[in-house]
Design goal:
mainly alpha; about 280 residues
Length: about 280
């Protein structure tokens, strides 16, 4: 059992390390940046040096400063959109789990239709309607992932409702709101947490995709996606301008996937028992 727990904790530690480094970088960016975002004194496409550790972009702006701001945007979008998706999704999922059969089937059909649309496509439609801004991106991604969370919550709630301890709790006179608080949510939360960790990585990837398409956070903000879009024209001359944001985005996605894998290994009783 100890060896199984140790194996499960390895991806969790590695994932937390990746995401932790990005989180510290994002936190530092709130208080300090090497250069102001609109400072163009570094010269166009300068190579890495002591004054500009990652070089400069095609307008002479410090690349490290823009990468740090990109980390702040990615983690902010990821965290807040996951919160929106969790609140909306869990609420509708619990209600669907308790609904009568005809209403439950209707809600399930609606959720299946929403899930059929890729989150990126839904986000593009919402951002196009609301206008390009950080708030629009967060709302779009959060609402897009809420259908996935709601569908998973509905399935988990129905599974828990079939357990004997729910019947015993109802027989003792426990109200449904209390059953949700003390029985249902604690039993479904471990599985939901793994899914939300995966959604965090997808949120960061979706934000970068929107920014790459010009639908993300507007200038002077510097998303990793917009940095990749700007660097594609000069990738042969200054490859680091494309490599740096790409590596950061990959580190975020791999990090949260490792965290999810570690959480699954810890929370899955089958894995804990070594089966």
């Amino acid at each position: 059992m100890k060896s199984t727990k140790a194996r499960a904790s390895v991806p969790l530690i590695v994932g937390l390390t990746f995401v932790g480094i990005l989180a510290v970088t994002a936190l530092i960016s709130y208080f300090w940046l090497p250069y102001k975002l609109q400072d163009m004194s570094g010269g166009r496409l300068s190579s890495p040096s002591l004054t500009h550790l990652l070089g400069t972009d095609k307008l002479g702006r410090d690349l490290l400063s823009r990468i740090m701001l990109g980390a702040r945007i990615a983690l902010t979008v990821g965290f807040t959109s996951v919160c929106i998706g969790a609140i909306v999704g869990v609420t509708f999922g619990v209600l669907a789990g308790f609904a009568q059969r005809w209403l439950d089937e209707s809600l399930a059909s609606v959720l299946d239709i929403l899930i059929a649309f890729p989150t990126l496509l839904l986000a593009m439609l919402i951002v196009a309607g609301r206008g390009s801004s950080l708030a629009s991106v967060i709302v779009a991604i959060g609402l897009g992932m809420s259908a996935i969370v709601a569908r998973l919550t509905r399935l988990l709630v129905k599974r828990v409702l079939n357990q004997d301890f729910i019947t015993a709790s109802r027989a003792s006179g426990t109200t449904w709101p209390r059953i949700v608080a003390i029985h249902i949510l604690p039993n479904i939360w471990p599985t939901l947490l793994v899914n939300l960790a995966l959604q965090f990585g997808l949120a960061g990837l979706t934000e970068a995709s929107l920014s790459y398409l010009g639908l993300g956070t507007p200038p002077p903000n510097a998303s990793w996606g917009s940095l990749l879009q700007e660097a594609q024209a000069t990738v042969l001359v200054a490859p680091l301008a494309a490599i740096a944001p790409g590596v950061c985005l990959i580190a975020l996605v791999i990090g949260v996937n490792l965290i999810a894998d570690g959480l699954r290994g810890i929370g899955d009783p089958t894995l804990r028992s070594g089966k």
